[in-house]
Amino acid sequence: MSGTPPRTSPGGVIKGVVFDLDGTLVDSWAVHCRCLRRAARAVGDPEPSAARLTLAQRPTDLDTLRALIGTDRLGRAVRAYRQALREELRRPGAAPAVPHAHELLTLLHRRGLITGVCTGRSRQDARALLDASGFGIDLSVAREDTARPKPAPDGLLAALGLLGLHPDEALYVGDRETDARQGASAGVRTLLLRRPDDGPAPPPSHALTDLRGLRAHLGKAGP
Prior knowledge:
It is globular, with a radius of gyration of 17 Å. 38% of the residues lie in helices and 11% in strands. It has helices at residues 29-42, 50-56, 61-69, 74-88, 101-110, 123-132, 154-163, 177-186, and strands spanning 16-19, 114-118, 139-141, 170-174, 189-193, 206-208. It is built from 8 helices and 6 strands, in the order E-H-H-H-H-H-E-H-E-H-E-H-E-E. By secondary structure, it is of the alpha/beta class.
């Protein structure tokens, strides 16, 4: 996938919103950590600490497991992680929606805006998380769809192409610095959902204290 932004259109009317998944639409951190710990135990490693799990985080699920486990046992770790995730998601409320996410998507659909998801997770796991959290939103781009992960623009540009959006017609909503960098490199206005202990949002992104704040950034929206 090329990293060159598609042609932009004049006017900059917002016609769609692309969302990151983990931490933006789905509050998946707790279940993700449980699955990583089960993956570590499955390959014979001691259970990693919370600090170790935080340090191992990468833009894709595969790279996170590689950082945590190493390359030699990666296949076993991936299988264990996915099995753990399937089991975890059978429990009601295991991966709840981020507050106000459903409310926001209802508003966007009512206003006729296009919506999609761009994630570094595998397609299978991302779809499982969306379904468990009650989202009917389209999964536009997953890890398998691009050669370069965040902060490269490839995934976001691919999502825009699939959704028929130019960069200046879209907003991108994430929650991490890599999301801000991806949005900037794709030429898409980026909003970051920030928690109180996250610190300031990296420029050129705009910080949201919760997803309801996105409404103020829509301006003149719709086809």
